[in-house]
């Protein structure tokens, strides 16, 4: 199975950006951070943090207990999407998805 080449990835991210902040944030998490769909959709504002001047994202990985998490560099698009919503419980998914 082959992934996207550079041009396809660029087109994917551009199209997602044109669709809105939430779509762009989701596309960045999938394409640039390598998250699974369920991992990306289960993120919310409480998972975004700041370490050494960089935005981070706490992610519950597949097979891990719910208390286990990793920090990933959060794309600027995610921070923009979550902060623009103004809602503390805002997530990328309208309903949580099991990882």
Structural overview:
- The structure is a single chain.
- The longest helix is centred in the N-terminal third of the chain and has 14 residues, at 6-19.
- 42% of the residues lie in helices and 14% in strands.
- Strands 1-2-3 form a three-stranded antiparallel beta sheet, with no helix packed on it.
- 23% of the residues are buried.
- It is globular and about 30 Å long.
- It is built from four helices and three strands, in the order H-H-H-E-E-E-H.
- It has 99 residues and is α+β, with helices and mostly antiparallel strands.
- A hairpin with a 2-residue loop joins strand 1 (48-51) and strand 2.
- The model is unreliable at 95-99 (pLDDT under 50).
Task: Give me a quick take on this structure.
The protein is of the alpha+beta class and 99 residues long. It has helices at residues 6-19, 21-33, 37-41, 76-85; strands at residues 48-51, 54-59, 70-73.
Low-confidence stretches: 95-99
Q: Work out the count of structural domains.
A: 1
Q: How much helix is in the residues?
A: 40-55%
Mean pLDDT, all residues: 75
Shape label: globular
Number of helices: 4
- Assembly of the depicted chains: single chain
Secondary-structure class: alpha+beta
Strands, total number: 3
> Whole-Å distance between the termini?
23 Å
Order of helices and strands: HHHEEEH
């Amino acid at each position: 199975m082959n992934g996207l080449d550079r041009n396809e990835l660029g087109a994917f991210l551009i199209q997602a950006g044109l669709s809105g902040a939430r779509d762009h944030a989701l596309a960045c998490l999938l394409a640039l951070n390598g998250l699974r769909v369920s991992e990306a959709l289960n993120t919310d504002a409480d998972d975004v943090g700041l370490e050494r001047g960089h935005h981070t994202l706490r992610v519950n990985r597949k097979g891990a207990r719910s208390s286990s998490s990793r920090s990933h560099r959060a794309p600027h698009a995610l921070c923009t999407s979550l902060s623009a919503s103004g809602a503390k419980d805002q997530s990328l998914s309208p309903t949580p998805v099991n990882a």
